[in-house]
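Teaching assistant here, posting this on the class forum so everyone can see the example we discussed in section. The complex has two components, and the goal was to see what a joint structure prediction looks like when all of them are supplied at once.
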Amino acid sequence: MTSILTVENLIKTYPAFRLGPVSFKVEAGSIMGFIGRNGAGKTTTLKSILNIVHPDSGSIHYFGQELPGNERAVKQRVGFAGGAVDYYPRKKIADIIAVTRNFYDNWDDDAYRKYMNIFSIDPQKAPRELSEGMKVKLNLAIALSHKAELLILDEPTSGLDPVSREELLEIFTALKERGVAILFSTHITSDLDKCADHITYIKKGELIASETMESFLSGHRMRGEGSNLEEIMLHYEKEDYREKFAE
Amino acid sequence: MLSFLFLVFSFMALIPGYPILLGAFFICFGLFQTFQNGRETNDVLYSALLPIDKRDVVKARYIFVCLIQITAFILMGLLTALRMVFFASAAPYVNNAMMNSNPVFLAWTLLIFALFNTLFVGLFYKTAYKFGKPFVAFIVASILTVCIAEVVHHLPGLKFLNTSERLPLQLMLMLFALVIFALATVISCRTAQQNFDSLDL
């Protein structure tokens, strides 16, 4: 299978937190779930691989090209949504999109209108008039509207109602069947149970595992560490919260 | 929007009995409003998410700043030519104790613009968020420059700087200031791009 994204030994250090080294690969036509509890380093990882956060070291290759030096070409083929739309809160969505679309060679107006319709977003509204969940959907609609071959999504189902979450997971599955690769971070493990092919688990900035969903689950089942993602996550994190309760 | 509107301060080049170099300061103040508006709307994040090199966010902003400044310079240049040709013998300009618009005035204008690009824009991109200290730095430097510019043409032997005399020399000074403006802007832009590239947005 073709590797769309290869991350090797990514490191980012903050005064009170160190991420990495983190290494993983995302293949075409697959969904990778990037899991960990809040503050584990998921968002830092995703932002680092897009140079929104500047990594200290590591190599990042998209479609066989290194990210530094090919940023423009890479970003044309990658869709990123990091939570809710957090810019131009008082500008009409239609006006924001009128500018945004010009930057993409493969902007797909039909797809944009389709997703805006699915997500029930009125383009005549401004972002500040939307709920947090709707702002997340708007960000997703933009990410899905330029024929991206890889989608990098930071907690895309966070804040969404159950029906919207189900819709989104169906969209991901349909895109995967069309060969799109999807990397999405979440702490809602039930979302990954439904659609993920691979799992990368991060705990306190450290990579615990990066393997197929099947092998991740079967390995932990055999060792009695949980029969689904939620139980496995509790197994990894329980020492921490028990220690904190004991203090 | 304000950056465009503040271009009208170019017309201060025609005011007699006034430190007309402040017109350049006000034009930069209009540009400051753009940065302020950009911060309020989180334009940096929006721009960085577009399919562009992260450094191009900075380059684009410098290009916009220079566009406004060059437009202002051209406007001031035309108004200066107008004053020198048609109002050269008008009493308010002949008896003007403050700066008259001439090529030397245009040279000082370019230096004010260079200070803005280096001090304000350059320092802003160290954080892409904080503009208080950068703006204070620019205010202090530009007001000092205005004061020096207003004093210099009163010094013995330098009175010609406020007239139409020795025009070839005045034009050379203006060209020299243009070179300083261009170099300062390019160096500031490259440094700002490096700083911005290593920022966490």
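For the discussion questions: Chain B is about 70% helix and 0% strand. The first helix of chain B runs from residue 2 to 5. Think about how each of these relates to the inputs above.
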